[in-house]
């Protein structure tokens, strides 16, 4: 579904250049439900905005289904956004209309695109667990319920790819679990590919594959050891916690580059050079030997 290779995004303003993505590689399979984690400023939202067609990449390649998002024309981009992607943001509910019912809110974007499918709108609200509340006005719903209306709306255009940026950022743990359950169900039942960007490692720990971004590059991949395991409510406060159920792998790109964590380098005082040895089984990186490290 998604293939990024050497993806670069540079933001330019007057005399400043920020390299938000510096040659990122990422593959997401059709029908996958995965999460992207990373510290603030690592490039997560930049990546999501590019995948959603809201921002243009600077270089590299990024393919979503049949679409090449580097070469796509403006007209095609409009079509891509309308037909291929659905978006969920942390404060999506803010864009909803409080004086309309949940159902009317879901029908609104359908109306704007020219075709209201009431049966499908109802089905969407049923999928997100709001069957009983679809005729309630939005202001009568809780924050978590409103976020679920937003999820229903994101599926109005029957997207193949759902992009969620911090979807549980402003809800409590129980609602966060509920929302994750909805994603899992939608992924299974309608086969929509879902990419979740989050700071929340507890949430990330509930999907089979988590990719960590560091400094605009994919650095580590976490794969669930037993994908059939029912996700528990365990707290994953850091990447070590994530490893309770996931195996961590360093990402090696096509030309053999990998990122060594900064803390490892500073612990050994490795700056711009290192020595590397292969002992038949392991690759060992040490401070430069000839320089006395
Ligand atoms: N429009 C912009 N103009 C200039 N720099 C930008 C712009 N958008 C993002 N950046 C910079 O690009 C880098 C990556 O930002 P991005 O928002 O993608 O990070 P993030 O991982 O999503 O962070 P957060 O978790 O805080 O949202 C940061 O250094 C940020 O300051």
TrEMBL record:
Transmembrane segments: none annotated. Residues 247-290 form the SpoVT-AbrB domain. It holds the Pfam family ABC_tran. Residues 2-240 form the ABC transporter domain. It comes from the Bacteria. Keywords: ATP-binding, DNA-binding, Nucleotide-binding, Transport. InterPro entries: AAA+_ATPase, ABC_transporter-like_ATP-bd, ABC_transporter-like_CS, ABC_transpr_LolD-like, MacB-like_ATP-bd, P-loop_NTPase, SpoVT-AbrB_dom. GO terms for molecular function: ATP binding. Coiled coil: none annotated. This is ABC transporter ATP-binding protein. It comes from Paenibacillus glycanilyticus. The lineage of its organism: Bacteria, Bacillati, Bacillota, Bacilli, Bacillales.
